Amino acid sequence: MRGYRKPTVSIIGASGYSGAELTGILMRHPSVKLEKLYAHSQAGKNVSDLYPALNNSMTYAPFDGSMDSDICFLALPHGQALELVPALRDAGKMVIDLSGDFRIKNPAEHLEYYKNRKPDGAWMTYAMPELFYDRIAASRAVSNPGCYATSIILGLAPLLCRPMDTFTVAAVNCTAISGISGAGRSGKTELSYAEMNDNVRAYKVGLHQHTPEIMQALGSSVSSPGFDFMFTPMIAPLTRGIYTVLNVRFEDNAPDCEHVTGHFRDFYASAPFVRMRDRVPEVRDVTYTNFCDINIAGAGNGKDLVIVTAIDNLVKGAAGQAVQNMNIMLGYDQALGIA
């Protein structure tokens, strides 16, 4: 089209795992132009030196506070986006933040779970496309969901955001296993091959920072929960992926699996990246994709359901979902450049 200019895109924090995943997706995206890649410790290095598979000759640059691109993705450690986003928004940039800095509305909950203070009002549209499409489309700055949160919320939203008849959820016990890339690229002894090979470890039991985000998205809160919720995150010797098992107890008898599966299919009818599966999904079903696979099973006692979800933590749990949100904000097909 004559006179058409593709929106330009830059990534701040481009050298980490999520930033590299973003780089790869945006390089291939047909309707935006990847313009700048910013990094701190890797500034001056060529992208292909760190990630040869990307085959990208761009050089990481230090971020000096100026931004020429139309759209800015931030893939930074928690706490850093709080300082950068206000200026980017004031400059009229479209902003998509992948950190947890702007996910939680309640500053007290943010302080408790992230251990850093943020001012009142430091919140942006919570950008889960399957739940908040219209809000995302009307926004210029959004907060991308966390990886664990994505896998858990998508497995529970049809039951809690659009309850079924007289079936009421009383409690959810969640166990979720993440690949090691979820901890980021910085080297840590406890995440080394020698420590993690042939090993699985629980951590932050009952205290994980995605907990208030999950409850908030499901219309509840950690301070005044509408149902009992226990979350046990675990790490396993996988490079990527999140595997979540949700044990859902109902106040009375549980609905049958076919009824629930049909309800989920209706709920996600317009969601191109949610797949209801007739068998229990596996991590390898979704790696390197933006899909969330879900299966519903009965627990055999008439009171509980078991819901299993699988996602790629770096794609649907981070970069892929972020680009999906960008597409919605720009008025593109949400699957453009991702599927």
TrEMBL record:
Primary localisation category: cytoplasm
Residue ranges occupied by any Semialdehyde dehydrogenase NAD-binding domain in the UniProt entry: 8-139
Listed EC numbers: 1.2.1.38
UniProt keywords, alphabetically: Amino-acid biosynthesis, Arginine biosynthesis, Cytoplasm, NADP, Oxidoreductase
Gene3D superfamilies on file: Dihydrodipicolinate Reductase, domain 2, NAD(P)-binding Rossmann-like Domain
GO terms under biological process: L-arginine biosynthetic process
Active site: 147
One GO cellular component term noted in the UniProt record for this chain: cytoplasm
UniProt GO MF annotations: N-acetyl-gamma-glutamyl-phosphate reductase activity; NAD binding; NADP+ binding
PANTHER family the record matches: N-ACETYL-GAMMA-GLUTAMYL-PHOSPHATE REDUCTASE, CHLOROPLASTIC-RELATED (PTHR32338:SF10), N-ACETYL-GAMMA-GLUTAMYL-PHOSPHATE REDUCTASE, CHLOROPLASTIC-RELATED-RELATED (PTHR32338)
Described function: Catalyzes the NADPH-dependent reduction of N-acetyl-5-glutamyl phosphate to yield N-acetyl-L-glutamate 5-semialdehyde.
Protein's recorded name: N-acetyl-gamma-glutamyl-phosphate reductase
